[in-house]
Structure formats: C-alpha cells, structure tokens
Amino acid sequence: MNNSINWFILISSTLFFWSCSEDSNNLSKEDYFIDVAINNTILLSNNTLGKLSHNKTECQTGENIFFTLISILKTSEYFIEPFLATYKESNNFTIDTTQKSNVIEYDFSTSECLENFDFCINFLQNDETLSLDKSKNNFSNITAITYVKDLGEFYSVYAISGNFNLTFLDSNQQEIKVTGEYKTPIQVLK
Length: 190
Prior knowledge:
Helix content is 9%, strand content 51%. Strands 1, 2, 7, 11, 12, 13 and 14 form a seven-stranded antiparallel sheet that branches. Residues 1-24 have low confidence and may be disordered. The protein is mainly β. It has one domain (2-189). The chain is globular. It has one helix and 14 strands; from the N terminus they run H-E-E-E-E-E-E-E-E-E-E-E-E-E-E.
C-alpha cells in the first residue's frame, strides 16, 4: 500500500509540475533525459519523471531530504530506477557548485543515512537485485545546477545535470558496468 501512495504522489507531482507556469528559460520536458549504458549497450529515456516526495532526514544537518525519481528504465532483462536525494527547501539548496556525490543502493524500506545530492539507484537484472561492487570506484558527479522557473507561490524548479559510473555484481560475481548521464528537473520549496 505504501508503494501505491508513493506512486500516486509521483504521478500527481509530475502532472502538477508539467502543467504549471510558463518556463522562463524555455526548458520543456523534452529537454530532460537520461542516457544509460549497461556493459556498453545503450538504453535511452527522454521521459524523466520529476519529484517523488518521500521525506527522510539528512544525517549531518537533520534537514528534510526528498527524492527526485530521474526515470524508470525497463527492458526484458533490466530494471533501473535512479533517484537524487536533495534538500526540500531552497534555503538549504545551493546552485553554485558542481560536485561528486555518494552512490547508494537504495530502496525505500531501508533506513540508510542520506546526504544532499546522493545518487540512489535500484538495479535489477532478470528480477534479481544487484549489489554495487564496493571495491570499485563507483561515482556520480553533479555537473550543473540551473534555475529554471518558479511554480507559483511555493515552489522553484531547477535542472540538475550529472553523470555516473558504477559497477554491480550479479549472483555469480560477474561485473556489470553501468554508466550514464542525465538532466532532470527538481522542485524545492521557496
């Protein structure tokens, strides 16, 4: 039932996001994307989804964190669900830096500690959840943060661009390389 509520919030937020005010920077939903390669096989998605509000507490500051679901990529073999964890309020949200961010295998049932701009990912192969190979240099970089527009009285929209390079292990300890780049919208409270 909790997943149903999360999906309802996701769809409602996405519809609200795309139906609101005119975009001052001329960004439209077609400008957002995620490109992923799995062992050099390319998967593309031009339908980033936007905000899925799921409150967590940031470990060091105690501030509210929420998730932006970048997209859902699904093939007959793979299911990939990448998220960004970001501060919920604009006074905690900085746009003047690019940075390396943590990579976390994540599902909503865990209580793992999160920080601003953590790159969270669920990755399944043939319905088997794969684990990050922690012996490898898994990384995610935020490469640009751009103010897009205000959504009425309460929200502002930013576009976040980034890339990632990850190594997962299947149940046979075979490496699966996952690389990609994205540009996704996020909403923060003013």
